[in-house]
Amino acid sequence: MLKKLKTPLSESDVRALKLGETICLDGIIFTGRDEVHIHALEGFEKGKKPPVEFKGSALFHCGPIMRKVADKWEAVAAGPTTSSRMNSLEPQFIEKFRPGAIIGKGGMSQPTIDAMKKLGCVYLAITGGAAVLAAKGIKSVSGVEWFELGMPEAIWILNAENFGPLTVAIDAHGNSLYSDVNVKVKENEKKARAKLGLG
Amino acid sequence: MVTEGDVANATVELLRKAVVKLPADVEDALRKAYAAETDEVPKMQLKAIVDNIDMAIKGNTPMCQDTGVTIFYATVPRDCKVDVAKGIVDGVRKATKEVPLRPNAVHPITRKNPGDNVGERHPFINWKIHDKDYIEITVMTKGAGSENMSQLAMLTPTQGLKGIKEFVLNAVLRAGSNPCPPTILGVGIGGSSDIAMKLAKEALLRPINERHKDPEIAKLETDLFEAINMLGIGPMGLGGKTTCLGLNIEYAYCHTASLPVGLNVQCWAGRRATVRIRPDGKTAYPTHER
Predict the structure, then answer these.
(1) Which tens digits make up the pLDDT trace of A81-100?
(2) For the segment B172-203, what is each residue's pLDDT rounded down to a tens digit?
(3) What 8-state DSSP symbol labels residue B269?
(4) Chain B neighbors of A84, CB-CB under 8 A
(5) Helix (H, G, I), strand (E, B) or coil at A196
(6) Please, where are the H alpha helices in B103-159?
(7) Do A151 and B269 touch (CB under 8 A)?
(8) Which of A13, A171, B33, B59 qualifies as a cystine partner to A9, CB 3.0-4.6 A?
(9) Which CATH number belongs to the domain containing residue A93 in this structure?
(10) Domain tally for chain B?
Protein backbone atom coordinates (compact mmCIF):
# COMPACT_ATOMS: atom_id res chain seq x y z
CA MET A 1 0.00 0.00 0.00
CA LEU A 2 1.22 3.44 -0.94
CA LYS A 3 1.26 6.27 1.55
CA LYS A 4 -1.93 8.23 1.04
CA LEU A 5 -2.66 11.91 1.61
CA LYS A 6 -5.94 13.78 1.45
CA THR A 7 -6.43 17.24 0.01
CA PRO A 8 -6.44 20.03 1.11
CA LEU A 9 -2.88 19.44 2.33
CA SER A 10 -1.55 21.01 5.50
CA GLU A 11 1.92 22.52 5.58
CA SER A 12 3.08 19.77 7.94
CA ASP A 13 1.79 17.07 5.51
CA VAL A 14 3.80 18.68 2.76
CA ARG A 15 6.99 19.28 4.75
CA ALA A 16 7.00 15.64 5.90
CA LEU A 17 7.22 14.26 2.35
CA LYS A 18 10.60 12.82 1.42
CA LEU A 19 12.34 13.07 -1.93
CA GLY A 20 11.80 9.94 -4.06
CA GLU A 21 8.89 8.71 -1.93
CA THR A 22 5.83 7.35 -3.79
CA ILE A 23 2.36 8.38 -2.65
CA CYS A 24 -1.22 8.62 -3.85
CA LEU A 25 -3.89 11.27 -3.27
CA ASP A 26 -7.55 11.36 -2.25
CA GLY A 27 -9.80 14.41 -2.41
CA ILE A 28 -10.24 17.34 -4.75
CA ILE A 29 -7.61 18.02 -7.41
CA PHE A 30 -7.75 21.07 -9.72
CA THR A 31 -6.34 21.04 -13.23
CA GLY A 32 -4.53 24.18 -14.30
CA ARG A 33 -1.96 24.84 -16.98
CA ASP A 34 -0.79 27.78 -19.12
CA GLU A 35 -4.01 29.81 -19.33
CA VAL A 36 -5.10 29.19 -15.71
CA HIS A 37 -1.77 30.56 -14.49
CA ILE A 38 -2.07 33.63 -16.74
CA HIS A 39 -5.71 34.34 -15.85
CA ALA A 40 -5.42 33.70 -12.11
CA LEU A 41 -2.41 36.01 -11.81
CA GLU A 42 -3.97 38.73 -14.01
CA GLY A 43 -7.10 38.52 -11.87
CA PHE A 44 -5.03 38.80 -8.68
CA GLU A 45 -3.50 42.06 -9.94
CA LYS A 46 -7.03 43.43 -10.39
CA GLY A 47 -8.15 42.18 -6.96
CA LYS A 48 -10.31 39.39 -8.44
CA LYS A 49 -10.43 36.02 -6.70
CA PRO A 50 -10.15 32.83 -8.76
CA PRO A 51 -13.29 30.66 -8.82
CA VAL A 52 -11.74 27.92 -6.65
CA GLU A 53 -9.72 27.94 -3.41
CA PHE A 54 -6.16 26.96 -4.28
CA LYS A 55 -4.79 27.09 -0.69
CA GLY A 56 -3.47 23.66 0.26
CA SER A 57 -4.74 22.27 -3.01
CA ALA A 58 -3.17 19.88 -5.47
CA LEU A 59 -2.79 21.70 -8.79
CA PHE A 60 -2.49 19.28 -11.69
CA HIS A 61 -0.70 20.44 -14.84
CA CYS A 62 -3.16 18.67 -17.10
CA GLY A 63 -5.41 19.31 -20.06
CA PRO A 64 -7.70 16.30 -20.00
CA ILE A 65 -10.04 14.73 -22.54
CA MET A 66 -13.47 14.99 -20.92
CA ARG A 67 -16.73 13.54 -22.16
CA LYS A 68 -20.26 14.51 -21.18
CA VAL A 69 -22.43 11.47 -20.51
CA ALA A 70 -26.04 12.23 -19.55
CA ASP A 71 -25.22 15.79 -18.40
CA LYS A 72 -22.27 14.60 -16.31
CA TRP A 73 -18.63 15.10 -17.20
CA GLU A 74 -16.27 12.16 -17.01
CA ALA A 75 -12.51 12.02 -17.49
CA VAL A 76 -11.51 9.88 -20.47
CA ALA A 77 -7.76 10.53 -20.40
CA ALA A 78 -6.00 12.81 -17.96
CA GLY A 79 -2.22 12.58 -17.91
CA PRO A 80 0.16 15.43 -17.07
CA THR A 81 1.42 18.12 -19.42
CA THR A 82 5.00 19.49 -19.53
CA SER A 83 5.42 21.49 -16.32
CA SER A 84 8.39 23.54 -17.52
CA ARG A 85 6.02 25.67 -19.61
CA MET A 86 4.75 27.09 -16.31
CA ASN A 87 8.29 27.84 -14.99
CA SER A 88 8.00 31.60 -15.45
CA LEU A 89 4.67 31.94 -13.59
CA GLU A 90 4.74 29.15 -10.99
CA PRO A 91 6.79 30.94 -8.29
CA GLN A 92 4.28 33.84 -8.30
CA PHE A 93 1.37 31.41 -8.42
CA ILE A 94 2.68 29.54 -5.36
CA GLU A 95 3.27 32.82 -3.52
CA LYS A 96 -0.17 34.28 -4.27
CA PHE A 97 -2.34 31.15 -4.03
CA ARG A 98 -0.34 28.77 -1.78
CA PRO A 99 -1.10 25.32 -3.31
CA GLY A 100 0.30 22.37 -1.32
CA ALA A 101 1.32 20.28 -4.31
CA ILE A 102 1.92 20.67 -8.00
CA ILE A 103 1.37 17.48 -10.03
CA GLY A 104 3.07 17.28 -13.41
CA LYS A 105 5.84 15.82 -15.48
CA GLY A 106 9.38 16.81 -16.31
CA GLY A 107 10.07 18.93 -13.22
CA MET A 108 10.45 22.68 -12.75
CA SER A 109 13.26 25.24 -12.59
CA GLN A 110 15.17 26.64 -9.62
CA PRO A 111 12.89 29.64 -8.85
CA THR A 112 9.98 27.21 -8.39
CA ILE A 113 12.11 24.87 -6.27
CA ASP A 114 13.00 27.91 -4.11
CA ALA A 115 9.35 29.01 -3.84
CA MET A 116 8.35 25.47 -2.82
CA LYS A 117 10.98 25.46 -0.08
CA LYS A 118 10.02 28.91 1.18
CA LEU A 119 6.24 28.48 1.13
CA GLY A 120 5.76 24.73 1.70
CA CYS A 121 4.82 23.01 -1.53
CA VAL A 122 5.99 19.83 -3.29
CA TYR A 123 6.20 18.65 -6.88
CA LEU A 124 4.65 15.25 -7.51
CA ALA A 125 5.67 13.52 -10.74
CA ILE A 126 3.14 11.39 -12.55
CA THR A 127 4.13 9.41 -15.63
CA GLY A 128 3.68 11.44 -18.80
CA GLY A 129 1.42 9.87 -21.40
CA ALA A 130 -0.06 7.37 -18.95
CA ALA A 131 -3.42 9.08 -19.20
CA VAL A 132 -5.76 6.12 -18.81
CA LEU A 133 -3.95 5.05 -15.65
CA ALA A 134 -4.27 8.59 -14.29
CA ALA A 135 -7.97 8.83 -15.21
CA LYS A 136 -8.59 5.63 -13.22
CA GLY A 137 -7.79 7.61 -10.05
CA ILE A 138 -10.46 10.19 -10.86
CA LYS A 139 -13.70 8.98 -9.33
CA SER A 140 -15.88 11.77 -10.61
CA VAL A 141 -15.79 15.30 -11.96
CA SER A 142 -17.28 17.81 -9.53
CA GLY A 143 -17.36 20.71 -11.94
CA VAL A 144 -15.55 22.97 -14.33
CA GLU A 145 -14.59 26.64 -14.16
CA TRP A 146 -13.27 28.92 -16.89
CA PHE A 147 -14.61 26.50 -19.50
CA GLU A 148 -14.41 29.33 -22.04
CA LEU A 149 -10.61 28.82 -22.07
CA GLY A 150 -11.22 25.54 -23.92
CA MET A 151 -11.28 21.94 -22.75
CA PRO A 152 -7.49 21.60 -22.24
CA GLU A 153 -7.09 24.97 -20.48
CA ALA A 154 -10.12 25.07 -18.16
CA ILE A 155 -10.06 24.39 -14.38
CA TRP A 156 -11.51 20.90 -13.97
CA ILE A 157 -12.51 20.02 -10.42
CA LEU A 158 -11.65 16.36 -10.01
CA ASN A 159 -12.71 14.07 -7.21
CA ALA A 160 -9.71 11.77 -6.80
CA GLU A 161 -9.36 8.41 -5.12
CA ASN A 162 -6.04 6.57 -4.99
CA PHE A 163 -4.73 9.03 -7.58
CA GLY A 164 -1.21 8.03 -8.52
CA PRO A 165 1.36 6.62 -8.16
CA LEU A 166 3.01 10.00 -7.60
CA THR A 167 6.73 10.38 -6.98
CA VAL A 168 7.90 13.23 -4.73
CA ALA A 169 10.33 14.65 -7.29
CA ILE A 170 10.82 18.08 -5.65
CA ASP A 171 10.38 18.26 -1.89
CA ALA A 172 9.62 21.26 0.32
CA HIS A 173 13.27 21.50 1.44
CA GLY A 174 14.94 22.53 -1.82
CA ASN A 175 15.78 19.06 -3.14
CA SER A 176 14.98 17.84 -6.65
CA LEU A 177 15.36 14.41 -8.25
CA TYR A 178 15.79 16.17 -11.61
CA SER A 179 18.76 18.16 -10.27
CA ASP A 180 20.30 14.91 -8.96
CA VAL A 181 19.81 13.25 -12.38
CA ASN A 182 21.34 16.31 -14.10
CA VAL A 183 24.54 15.96 -12.12
CA LYS A 184 24.89 12.36 -13.33
CA VAL A 185 23.94 13.28 -16.91
CA LYS A 186 26.72 15.93 -16.96
CA GLU A 187 29.19 13.20 -15.97
CA ASN A 188 27.77 10.70 -18.53
CA GLU A 189 27.91 13.33 -21.28
CA LYS A 190 31.70 12.97 -21.37
CA LYS A 191 31.41 9.25 -22.17
CA ALA A 192 28.74 9.86 -24.82
CA ARG A 193 30.91 12.55 -26.48
CA ALA A 194 33.93 10.23 -26.45
CA LYS A 195 31.85 7.52 -28.11
CA LEU A 196 30.88 9.93 -30.90
CA GLY A 197 34.48 11.14 -31.34
CA LEU A 198 33.63 14.64 -30.11
CA GLY A 199 36.22 16.58 -28.11
CA MET B 1 -16.22 3.34 -56.26
CA VAL B 2 -14.69 4.98 -53.20
CA THR B 3 -16.54 8.05 -51.90
CA GLU B 4 -15.59 10.94 -49.62
CA GLY B 5 -17.72 9.26 -46.98
CA ASP B 6 -15.58 6.10 -47.23
CA VAL B 7 -12.43 8.21 -46.77
CA ALA B 8 -14.01 9.99 -43.79
CA ASN B 9 -15.02 6.71 -42.13
CA ALA B 10 -11.58 5.20 -42.77
CA THR B 11 -10.01 8.35 -41.27
CA VAL B 12 -12.08 8.00 -38.08
CA GLU B 13 -11.02 4.36 -37.70
CA LEU B 14 -7.42 5.29 -38.55
CA LEU B 15 -7.34 7.95 -35.85
CA ARG B 16 -8.96 5.64 -33.32
CA LYS B 17 -6.35 2.97 -33.97
CA ALA B 18 -3.52 5.52 -33.87
CA VAL B 19 -4.42 7.02 -30.48
CA VAL B 20 -5.46 3.77 -28.77
CA LYS B 21 -2.73 1.32 -29.79
CA LEU B 22 0.96 1.75 -30.58
CA PRO B 23 2.57 0.17 -33.62
CA ALA B 24 4.25 -3.15 -32.71
CA ASP B 25 7.86 -1.86 -33.01
CA VAL B 26 7.27 0.92 -30.44
CA GLU B 27 5.33 -1.28 -28.01
CA ASP B 28 8.02 -3.99 -28.18
CA ALA B 29 10.77 -1.43 -27.49
CA LEU B 30 8.91 -0.15 -24.40
CA ARG B 31 8.36 -3.66 -23.01
CA LYS B 32 12.04 -4.41 -23.59
CA ALA B 33 13.05 -1.22 -21.78
CA TYR B 34 10.79 -2.12 -18.84
CA ALA B 35 12.33 -5.60 -18.60
CA ALA B 36 15.87 -4.17 -18.74
CA GLU B 37 15.42 -1.46 -16.09
CA THR B 38 16.69 -2.29 -12.62
CA ASP B 39 16.46 1.02 -10.75
CA GLU B 40 13.23 1.50 -8.75
CA VAL B 41 12.17 5.01 -9.86
CA PRO B 42 12.58 4.51 -13.65
CA LYS B 43 11.16 1.00 -13.39
CA MET B 44 7.99 2.46 -11.91
CA GLN B 45 7.74 4.98 -14.76
CA LEU B 46 8.04 2.22 -17.35
CA LYS B 47 5.56 0.04 -15.48
CA ALA B 48 3.02 2.88 -15.61
CA ILE B 49 3.67 3.16 -19.35
CA VAL B 50 3.19 -0.55 -20.15
CA ASP B 51 0.19 -0.83 -17.80
CA ASN B 52 -1.30 2.19 -19.52
CA ILE B 53 -0.75 0.62 -22.96
CA ASP B 54 -2.79 -2.41 -21.84
CA MET B 55 -5.53 -0.29 -20.24
CA ALA B 56 -5.92 1.89 -23.34
CA ILE B 57 -6.40 -1.18 -25.56
CA LYS B 58 -8.80 -2.79 -23.10
CA GLY B 59 -10.95 0.32 -22.77
CA ASN B 60 -10.57 1.39 -26.43
CA THR B 61 -9.47 4.77 -25.02
CA PRO B 62 -6.73 7.19 -26.13
CA MET B 63 -3.50 6.23 -24.32
CA CYS B 64 -2.59 9.89 -23.76
CA GLN B 65 -4.87 12.90 -23.27
CA ASP B 66 -2.72 14.80 -25.73
CA THR B 67 -4.05 13.25 -28.91
CA GLY B 68 -1.83 15.71 -30.69
CA VAL B 69 -2.20 17.51 -33.94
CA THR B 70 -3.07 15.24 -36.84
CA ILE B 71 -0.33 15.21 -39.48
CA PHE B 72 -1.45 13.32 -42.59
CA TYR B 73 0.50 11.70 -45.43
CA ALA B 74 -1.83 10.81 -48.29
CA THR B 75 -0.79 8.86 -51.37
CA VAL B 76 -3.37 8.70 -54.13
CA PRO B 77 -3.68 6.97 -57.53
CA ARG B 78 -2.97 9.06 -60.64
CA ASP B 79 -6.61 9.01 -61.72
CA CYS B 80 -8.06 9.60 -58.23
CA LYS B 81 -11.53 11.13 -58.56
CA VAL B 82 -12.36 11.32 -54.84
CA ASP B 83 -11.88 14.49 -52.82
CA VAL B 84 -9.55 12.78 -50.34
CA ALA B 85 -8.78 16.08 -48.56
CA LYS B 86 -12.46 16.64 -47.78
CA GLY B 87 -12.78 13.05 -46.58
CA ILE B 88 -9.83 13.50 -44.23
CA VAL B 89 -11.12 16.81 -42.83
CA ASP B 90 -14.60 15.37 -42.26
CA GLY B 91 -13.00 12.32 -40.65
CA VAL B 92 -11.02 14.51 -38.23
CA ARG B 93 -14.18 16.38 -37.22
CA LYS B 94 -16.05 13.14 -36.65
CA ALA B 95 -13.16 11.44 -34.81
CA THR B 96 -12.84 14.45 -32.46
CA LYS B 97 -16.38 13.72 -31.24
CA GLU B 98 -16.46 9.95 -31.53
CA VAL B 99 -13.04 8.64 -30.40
CA PRO B 100 -12.88 11.26 -28.70
CA LEU B 101 -9.81 13.35 -29.52
CA ARG B 102 -8.92 16.39 -27.45
CA PRO B 103 -9.75 19.57 -29.36
CA ASN B 104 -6.16 20.77 -29.68
CA ALA B 105 -6.14 22.96 -32.77
CA VAL B 106 -6.29 26.70 -31.99
CA HIS B 107 -5.65 29.95 -33.87
CA PRO B 108 -1.91 30.62 -33.38
CA ILE B 109 -2.36 34.21 -32.16
CA THR B 110 -5.86 34.59 -30.69
CA ARG B 111 -5.63 31.00 -29.27
CA LYS B 112 -9.34 30.63 -30.08
CA ASN B 113 -10.32 26.95 -30.09
CA PRO B 114 -13.00 25.96 -32.64
CA GLY B 115 -13.43 22.66 -30.76
CA ASP B 116 -13.28 20.32 -33.77
CA ASN B 117 -9.55 20.17 -34.62
CA VAL B 118 -10.21 21.86 -37.97
CA GLY B 119 -9.00 25.32 -38.99
CA GLU B 120 -6.79 27.22 -41.44
CA ARG B 121 -4.38 24.64 -43.00
CA HIS B 122 -5.37 22.16 -40.29
CA PRO B 123 -5.24 19.17 -40.48
CA PHE B 124 -2.11 19.42 -42.63
CA ILE B 125 -1.87 16.88 -45.45
CA ASN B 126 1.35 15.90 -47.26
CA TRP B 127 0.56 14.58 -50.75
CA LYS B 128 2.10 11.96 -53.02
CA ILE B 129 0.92 10.18 -56.14
CA HIS B 130 1.57 6.50 -56.88
CA ASP B 131 0.90 4.00 -59.67
CA LYS B 132 -1.18 1.68 -57.46
CA ASP B 133 -4.97 1.60 -57.48
CA TYR B 134 -5.49 2.18 -53.74
CA ILE B 135 -5.45 5.30 -51.56
CA GLU B 136 -2.99 5.12 -48.68
CA ILE B 137 -3.32 7.47 -45.72
CA THR B 138 -0.88 7.60 -42.83
CA VAL B 139 -1.48 9.72 -39.77
CA MET B 140 0.89 10.77 -37.04
CA THR B 141 -0.82 12.22 -33.96
CA LYS B 142 1.88 14.45 -32.59
CA GLY B 143 1.76 15.72 -29.02
CA ALA B 144 3.13 19.15 -28.14
CA GLY B 145 5.44 18.19 -25.26
CA SER B 146 7.81 16.44 -27.62
CA GLU B 147 7.17 18.57 -30.72
CA ASN B 148 8.15 21.68 -28.70
CA MET B 149 11.65 20.20 -28.29
CA SER B 150 12.22 19.87 -32.05
CA GLN B 151 15.00 21.97 -33.60
CA LEU B 152 16.65 23.08 -36.81
CA ALA B 153 20.37 23.81 -37.24
CA MET B 154 21.75 25.51 -40.33
CA LEU B 155 25.27 24.09 -40.04
CA THR B 156 28.15 24.92 -42.35
CA PRO B 157 29.78 22.19 -44.48
CA THR B 158 32.98 22.61 -42.43
CA GLN B 159 31.10 21.50 -39.31
CA GLY B 160 30.32 18.25 -41.12
CA LEU B 161 29.52 14.95 -39.43
CA LYS B 162 30.87 16.13 -36.06
CA GLY B 163 28.56 19.14 -36.23
CA ILE B 164 25.57 16.87 -36.87
CA LYS B 165 26.43 14.65 -33.87
CA GLU B 166 27.05 17.70 -31.66
CA PHE B 167 23.70 19.23 -32.64
CA VAL B 168 21.67 16.07 -31.95
CA LEU B 169 23.41 15.35 -28.64
CA ASN B 170 23.00 18.94 -27.42
CA ALA B 171 19.32 19.03 -28.43
CA VAL B 172 18.66 15.84 -26.44
CA LEU B 173 20.48 17.29 -23.42
CA ARG B 174 18.53 20.53 -23.66
CA ALA B 175 15.21 18.68 -24.01
CA GLY B 176 16.04 16.61 -20.91
CA SER B 177 12.93 15.46 -19.08
CA ASN B 178 10.49 17.58 -21.11
CA PRO B 179 9.55 15.46 -24.15
CA CYS B 180 8.33 12.39 -22.16
CA PRO B 181 11.39 10.18 -22.60
CA PRO B 182 12.17 7.48 -23.61
CA THR B 183 11.90 9.33 -26.91
CA ILE B 184 12.09 8.42 -30.56
CA LEU B 185 14.26 10.78 -32.59
CA GLY B 186 13.83 11.66 -36.25
CA VAL B 187 16.79 13.35 -37.91
CA GLY B 188 16.64 15.00 -41.34
CA ILE B 189 19.96 15.83 -42.95
CA GLY B 190 20.37 18.03 -46.02
CA GLY B 191 17.78 19.47 -48.39
CA SER B 192 17.04 23.00 -47.22
CA SER B 193 15.73 24.42 -43.95
CA ASP B 194 12.15 23.26 -44.60
CA ILE B 195 13.12 19.93 -46.17
CA ALA B 196 15.42 18.99 -43.26
CA MET B 197 12.51 19.45 -40.84
CA LYS B 198 10.10 17.59 -43.13
CA LEU B 199 12.54 14.67 -43.42
CA ALA B 200 13.06 14.65 -39.66
CA LYS B 201 9.33 14.08 -39.18
CA GLU B 202 9.10 11.57 -42.03
CA ALA B 203 11.96 9.61 -40.44
CA LEU B 204 9.55 8.87 -37.58
CA LEU B 205 7.26 7.00 -39.96
CA ARG B 206 9.81 4.20 -40.39
CA PRO B 207 9.63 1.40 -37.75
CA ILE B 208 12.38 1.94 -35.18
CA ASN B 209 13.74 -1.60 -35.59
CA GLU B 210 14.60 -0.97 -39.26
CA ARG B 211 17.94 0.67 -40.03
CA HIS B 212 18.54 2.94 -43.03
CA LYS B 213 19.45 1.06 -46.22
CA ASP B 214 22.64 3.11 -46.67
CA PRO B 215 25.22 1.50 -44.31
CA GLU B 216 26.92 4.84 -43.53
CA ILE B 217 23.61 6.37 -42.42
CA ALA B 218 22.68 3.18 -40.56
CA LYS B 219 25.96 3.41 -38.61
CA LEU B 220 25.26 7.03 -37.71
CA GLU B 221 21.79 6.01 -36.48
CA THR B 222 23.30 3.30 -34.27
CA ASP B 223 26.15 5.47 -32.96
CA LEU B 224 23.84 8.34 -31.99
CA PHE B 225 21.30 5.94 -30.47
CA GLU B 226 23.93 4.24 -28.30
CA ALA B 227 25.55 7.53 -27.23
CA ILE B 228 22.20 9.06 -26.23
CA ASN B 229 21.40 6.00 -24.13
CA MET B 230 24.66 6.53 -22.24
CA LEU B 231 23.34 9.87 -20.90
CA GLY B 232 21.12 8.43 -18.15
CA ILE B 233 18.30 10.96 -18.57
CA GLY B 234 15.96 7.98 -18.35
CA PRO B 235 12.17 7.57 -18.46
CA MET B 236 10.50 10.92 -17.67
CA GLY B 237 13.94 12.40 -16.93
CA LEU B 238 14.05 10.64 -13.57
CA GLY B 239 17.23 8.72 -14.43
CA GLY B 240 17.66 5.21 -15.82
CA LYS B 241 18.95 3.11 -18.64
CA THR B 242 16.61 4.01 -21.51
CA THR B 243 16.55 7.60 -22.74
CA CYS B 244 15.80 6.84 -26.39
CA LEU B 245 13.78 3.99 -27.96
CA GLY B 246 14.98 4.52 -31.49
CA LEU B 247 16.64 6.98 -33.85
CA ASN B 248 15.93 7.20 -37.58
CA ILE B 249 17.67 9.38 -40.16
CA GLU B 250 16.56 10.44 -43.64
CA TYR B 251 18.66 12.58 -45.96
CA ALA B 252 18.47 14.61 -49.15
CA TYR B 253 21.15 16.22 -51.30
CA CYS B 254 21.72 19.87 -50.43
CA HIS B 255 23.51 23.00 -51.67
CA THR B 256 27.30 22.70 -51.65
CA ALA B 257 27.45 25.67 -49.25
CA SER B 258 24.98 24.43 -46.66
CA LEU B 259 24.27 21.63 -44.21
CA PRO B 260 20.78 21.87 -42.73
CA VAL B 261 19.93 19.39 -39.97
CA GLY B 262 16.46 18.95 -38.50
CA LEU B 263 15.56 17.06 -35.35
CA ASN B 264 12.02 15.96 -34.60
CA VAL B 265 11.49 14.70 -31.07
CA GLN B 266 8.75 12.13 -30.47
CA CYS B 267 7.58 11.08 -27.00
CA TRP B 268 7.40 7.38 -26.03
CA ALA B 269 3.86 7.32 -27.44
CA GLY B 270 5.05 7.12 -31.05
CA ARG B 271 1.58 7.00 -32.53
CA ARG B 272 1.27 6.39 -36.26
CA ALA B 273 -1.21 4.39 -38.30
CA THR B 274 -1.76 3.63 -41.97
CA VAL B 275 -4.90 2.69 -43.88
CA ARG B 276 -5.20 1.45 -47.45
CA ILE B 277 -8.54 2.02 -49.15
CA ARG B 278 -9.04 -0.24 -52.15
CA PRO B 279 -11.20 0.71 -55.17
CA ASP B 280 -14.01 -1.52 -53.85
CA GLY B 281 -13.98 0.45 -50.57
CA LYS B 282 -12.38 -2.35 -48.50
CA THR B 283 -9.80 -1.17 -45.96
CA ALA B 284 -6.65 -2.63 -44.42
CA TYR B 285 -4.52 -1.22 -41.59
CA PRO B 286 -0.95 -2.56 -42.10
CA THR B 287 0.45 -0.80 -38.99
CA HIS B 288 -2.18 -2.38 -36.76
CA GLU B 289 -2.37 -6.01 -37.83
CA ARG B 290 -1.12 -7.46 -34.54
Answers:
(1) 999 999 999 999 999 999 99
(2) 999 999 999 999 999 999 999 999 999 999 99
(3) -
(4) 178
(5) coil
(6) 144-147
(7) no
(8) A13
(9) 3.20.130.10
(10) 2
| Residue B206 sits in the same domain as residue B80 | no
> 3-state DSSP call for residue B23?
coil
Minimal Cβ distance to B63: which of A107, A125, A131:
A131
Does the complex come out with an ipTM higher than 0.85?
yes
The 10s digit of each residue's pLDDT in A159-176 is: 999 999 999 999 999 999
- Category of B281 on φ-ψ map: left (φ > 0), alpha (ψ -120 to 50) or beta: left
Residue B214 placed within a domain? yes
Q: Which amino acid does the sequence have at B179? A: P
Domain of residue A68: give its range: 3-195
For residues B9 and B139, state if they share a domain: yes
Nearest to B236 among A67, A128, A195 (CB): A128
- The span from the CA of A105 to the CA of A127, in Å, is 7
Q: Total structural domains in chain A?
A: 1
Rg from Cα positions in chain B: 19
- Identify the domain containing residue B185 by its residue range: 145-266
Task: Decide if B104 and A152 are in contact by the 8 Å CB cutoff.
Answer: yes
Same domain for B84 and B73: yes
* Catalytic residue annotation of A: 37
**Alpha carbon of A67: minimum distance to chain B alpha carbons (Å):** 8
Reduce the DSSP state of residue B250 to 3 states and report it.
strand
